[in-house]
Amino acid sequence: MSIDFSPYQAVFLDLDGTVYHEDHALPGAAQLVRRLKEQRQAFACLSNSTQSPLRVLLRLEGMHIDVDPDQVYTAAAASADYVLEHFKSDSRGPRVFNLATEGVGDMLEGSVDWVQTDSEPCDAVIIGTPTSVFATEERQRLALRLLRKSAAAIGICSDRVYPSPRGLEFGSGALTWMLCYAAGVEPVFCGKPQPIFFHELCGRLDVQADACLLVGDNLESDIFGAKGVGMRTILTLTGVTRRRDLLTVPQELQPDLVVEDLTELV
Predict the structure, then answer these.
(1) Please, are residues 48 and 221 in contact by the beta-carbon 8 Å criterion?
(2) Residue 144 above 80 pLDDT?
(3) Which of 162, 107, 100 has its CA nearest to residue 130?
(4) What 3-state DSSP class applies to 117?
(5) Strand (E) positions, the chain?
(6) How many of the other CB atoms lie within 10 Å of CB of 188?
(7) Cis peptide before 53 (omega within 30 of 0)
(8) Which residue range(s) make up the domain with 141?
(9) Looking at residue 247, which CATH number applies to its domain?
(10) Taking the model in full, what pTM does it have?
(11) Most exposed of 68, 78, 114, 255 (fewest Cβ within 10 Å)?
(12) What digits encode the pLDDT tens for the residues 61-87?
């Protein structure tokens, strides 16, 4: 089969489980990106990664997948954008505690005031995964105290788990909800499947969500999220979702097309 992408204003490719797994490209991924570039089709790669787009870009380069820096958008970048938009004042930058990653630090360095203790005022705590070196037990306790003192909880994404070489790991969503339950506060999530993520991405490309196509491997974060903003969707079975998982999905949430891997699209 060969899909005609020309009717779409933009094509969005999920990364982990769709384009790559760990440090190797999945079948058809490099060819699909090359085809989109050759056809001058607007596209972007997106991920619930807690890292910066630059770090993800370097990872793609290591797999010989060539994309431009402005064609990668991560949940960590969406979180940084959200904090800068909602907590900046005329006299100072947002006051932020980083419970996420070095990539978040890279993106916000010079634009925020970093909080180091619970005696300082704090606007927002950015929360990543519990396996990060920024999320030690001591720093989690500090984050809890800051949240109980009215800092906003900004979860990079609502993922419950994510795959690693060790198996399933606790995701950003799991740590965020644990802290928010203990602090008695409600979080804001900035990654997939939240509409804020997809609308921000579409705004960057100057396209309309209901005129775009998303290709992903995760029913909840990719397919349901994209359908929620009106996108057409293609599910690839190279990642989280298995064909049997579709048996319990309502018709309105079913992907528009299901493929075994990306070779079917090129």
Answers:
(1) yes
(2) yes
(3) 100
(4) coil
(5) 10-14, 20-21, 24-25, 43-47, 72-74, 95-99, 113-114, 124-127, 152-155, 161-164, 167-170, 188-189, 212-216, 232-236, 257-259
(6) 16
(7) no
(8) 88-189
(9) 3.40.50.1000
(10) 0.92
(11) 68
(12) 999 999 999 999 999 999 999 999 999
